[in-house]
Design brief:
The complex is a heterodimer. By secondary structure, chain A is mainly beta. Chain A is built from 1 helix and 7 strands. Chain A has one domain: Beta-grasp domain (Ubiquitin-like (UB roll)). Chain A has one helix at residues 25-31; strands at residues 2-8, 11-17, 23-24, 41-44, 47-49, 54-55, 60-64. Chain A has a 5-stranded mixed beta sheet, covered by helices on one side. Chain A has a two-stranded antiparallel ribbon with strand order 3-6. Chain B is globular. In chain B, helix 2 packs across helix 19, helix 12 runs parallel beside helix 14 and helix 19 packs across helix 21. The chains are: A mainly beta, B alpha+beta. Bound molecules: iron/sulfur cluster (SF4). The site of iron/sulfur cluster has 14 residues of chain B, from loops. Chain A: InterPro entries: Mopterin_synth/thiamin_S_b. Chain A: It comes from Acetomicrobium hydrogeniformans. Chain A: This is MoaD/ThiS family protein.
């Protein structure tokens, strides 16, 4: 069971994704119905990860839109 | 006939009370393009190295850019430049609003100010006529009243006033300049330079239309941009939440500067977020000249007498008075923001300098005996407000903090130096380089000291699929890179984006309008330049303008003795973040230094960070080597 926290429009939404094995971040995005265009970056285990990186069943992943400065 | 600009630069010698107009050629204007380019040119030409930035020999330049005043979103900016009293380096800061377009409509592409008035004065520029007025009755007054008096005196409520409040008059080293009470040339202490010249304000009124070379093309670009504003998630987000949207995003990502950059996460971030602002104090969404994005806020709080005409706190302010000082009361932050706007203090440096003092207080380096009886502990909102007042008036301990955190730490001593987080003496803005490595380069290499508006941040170019990435491919940026990597690809992306963003500062474009931060494509920016000025230009020429402006600033600094040793970061960034999703992350000093050398090499600067003779020639800047070649080595 991976916890997926999606940040968008000044809100955090939490999803739980049932997993029995490690899957890619791209797979998780499909599961929670987020288009790749909307994703700027993602963080898992204190590290930035990309679409091909693996997410384990116990991980927490945070997904963000492109965030800029200013 | 020149389209888009006037070919006229105003020169004012305040000591001699002399006003002159310089007619500049098309080639000159196209080479420097206004804004930061014009500032670099005049500072190098007219100022000797080693002068006192708060003395009469400093040169103060106000410069809109080539696109300022175009009837298109984001084309509103002007830059102010001088030798900075905060950094002793090249000083430059941009503001939006309406003042820049108004100056061009009044017939000028820039104002170059020298000397010092014998008594307080203000300039009034009215459709090409320029006069110096006595400002004795305005000196000491806060910004709201000054704007009212000037508009009443000249019987014109549409006059645009750029001015300083008491913070600038009292030479606070990070005093800013405000226009319309809510837009700011925030950084580098340029308000103190105005104060040192006894110049209270520059009031401008211009009624002429700026001629446009190709109306049809301009209107097509403008319509297209307008139609994307509510469709593109980046611009839509700016409209709905303003820059404040970054509070919760950065917090969730562990890159919200908290407790003087010790943590990357603030457990009360919700209380200082866009949501809290919208629910508690927001009264209007506002914008700048001709811009449909309307990312500015106007707020109101009866508890503290906060008035909408002073705007509302931006992300930088919410973080610098909020998470950085562990303050979770949005009304206190709105009040602190208004006080800074009335006194004209840069909210970033003010928040950072107070957070520095709070950390000293926590470490018992400072006690209430030092701070005029104020309990300057993290989280104490009333202490924050009291200290802002003291800084602006240079009263008691405020006089020490008015010097900025670096100089204050040198006065205080006792190991406080490690709590002062500055580059070249300027306080870090509210972005965490331990989570965005190109920011480490931006902060260190910026000629102006720590600055977050040098280039798009790593998180904007971290994924190939994300909004905005495809649109920057025309710059030759074809691959994304993880935010927490120093690689040659990362440095190259940073170098290209910093030239592109530097071009914005020369041309007068708001960074929140073109890609990748927003939705205006590169092609439309180039076409807008063609449509406004009639030049057949290209992204290549515009990038070179950006690079030229960077090199002018770097040569100014080289003349002042700056080199690689000043392109350095505070120690704290090489230690781990203590809290948040990225806790444990730190920068590697070795990797950072290597990336900096790669950046220099890519820019054709030598190992000390000084542009080579070849680079100067390539940019048409041989005159710098000829004028100053003997006084430093290049
Ligand atoms: S995007 Fe925002 S800051 Fe930029 S010009 Fe438009 S309203 Fe002003």
């Amino acid at each position: 069971m991976a916890k997926v926290i999606v940040f968008s429009g000044d809100r955090l939404t939490e999803h739980i994704v049932e997993l029995d094995r490690a899957v890619t971040l791209g797979y998780i995005l499909n599961k929670v119905n987020i288009s790749r265009e909307e994703v700027g970056f993602a963080i898992c285990r204190s590290k930035y990860i990309c679409l091909d990186d693996l997410v384990n069943p116990e991980d927490e992943v945070r997904i963000f839109p492109p965030l800029g400065g200013g | 006939m020149a389209f888009g600009y006037n070919r006229r630069v105003l020169h004012v010698d305040l000591s001699a009370e002399r006003i002159e107009v310089e007619n500049v050629s098309d080639e000159f204007y196209r080479t420097y393009m206004g804004g930061s380019g014009l500032i670099g040119y005049y500072l190098l030409k007219m100022m000797k190295p080693g002068i006192d930035p708060l003395g009469p020999d400093n040169v103060l330049v106000f410069a809109p850019g080539a696109l300022t005043g175009a009837p298109l979103g984001g084309m509103c900016r002007f830059a102010v430049g001088a030798k900075s009293p905060l950094t002793n380096a090249f000083g430059q800061s941009e503001a939006g609003g309406f003042w820049g377009p108004e100056l061009k409509r009044a017939g000028f592409d820039g104002i170059v100010i020298r000397g010092k008035a014998s008594k307080p004065v203000y300039l009034y520029i009215n459709d090409g006529d320029v006069s110096i007025y006595d400002a004795g009755d305005l000196w000491g007054k806060k910004t709201g009243e000054v704007q009212d008096v000037i508009r009443d005196r000249h019987k014109d409520p549409a006059i645009r006033v750029a001015q300083i409040g008491p913070g600038g008059e009292n030479l606070v080293r990070y005093a800013c300049i405000t226009n319309e009470l809510k837009h700011f040339n925030g950084r580098n202490g340029l308000g103190a330079v105005m104060g040192s010249k006894n110049l209270k304000a520059i009031a401008v009124r211009g009624k002429k239309q700026i001629p446009i070379a190709d109306h049809k093309l301009m209107s097509e670009i403008s319509k297209k941009f307008g139609s994307t504003v509510m469709e593109n998630p980046l611009t839509k987000g700016l409209y709905e939440s303003g820059t404040a949207a970054s509070v919760l995003g950065n917090n969730a990502a562990g890159i919200l500067p908290t407790k003087n950059f010790r943590y990357g996460e603030f457990d009360k971030a919700e209380a200082i977020s866009a949501k809290a602002m919208n629910e508690k104090i927001l009264v209007a969404r506002e914008g700048c000249y001709a811009c449909p994005v309307r990312c500015k806020r106007a707020v109101k709080s009866d508890r503290y007498g906060v008035e909408p005409r002073f705007g509302g706190p931006e992300y930088e302010t919410l973080a610098s008075f909020g998470s950085l000082c562990l303050i979770d009361d949005i009304e206190v932050i709105a009040k602190a923001n208004q006080m800074c706007n009335e006194y004209t203090l840069d909210t970033i440096s003010t928040g950072m300098t107070i957070a520095f003092a709070m950390e000293c207080f926590e470490a018992n380096i400072l006690t209430e005996d030092d701070t005029d009886g104020i309990e300057l502990s993290f989280g104490n909102g009333e202490a924050l407000l009291a200290m802002i007042e003291k800084i602006a008036k240079r009263e008691g301990f405020g006089d020490v903090l008015a010097e900025g955190s670096k100089r204050a730490s040198e006065i205080i001593g006792k190991g406080s130096e490690k709590f002062a987080l500055t580059v070249k003496g300027q306080e870090l803005p509210m972005h965490e380089p331990r989570g965005k490595y190109s920011l480490a380069l931006a902060y260190a290499a910026s000629e102006r000291g720590a600055d977050h508006m040098v280039a798009a941040h790593d998180t904007m170019v971290a994924s190939k699929d994300q909004y905005g990435f495809r649109e920057i491919m025309p710059l030759g940026i074809l691959e994304p890179e993880s935010p927490t990597v120093f690689s040659n690809l990362k440095v190259r992306t940073f170098a290209y984006l910093s030239m592109w963003w530097s071009f914005f500062n020369a041309a007068g474009i708001c960074d929140f309008v073109p890609v990748p931060r927003s939705s205006m494509p590169i092609k439309d920016v180039v076409d807008a330049m063609c449509a406004f000025t009639g030049w057949q230009t290209s992204a290549f020429e515009l990038m070179k303008v950006g690079e030229r402006a960077l090199v002018l600033a770097r040569m100014f600094n080289a003349r002042e003795g700056f080199d690689v040793k000043e392109d350095a970061l505070p120690e704290r960034l090489f230690s781990p973040l203590e809290k948040g999703p990225l806790s444990g992350n730190s920068l590697s000093e070795e990797e950072f230094k290597e990336a900096l050398q790669i950046y220099y090499a890519m820019m054709n600067w030598n190992e000390r960070g000084i542009p080579t003779r070849g680079k100067l020639s390539e940019l048409g800047l041989d005159w710098i080597a000829e004028d100053y070649g003997q006084s430093y080595s290049i």
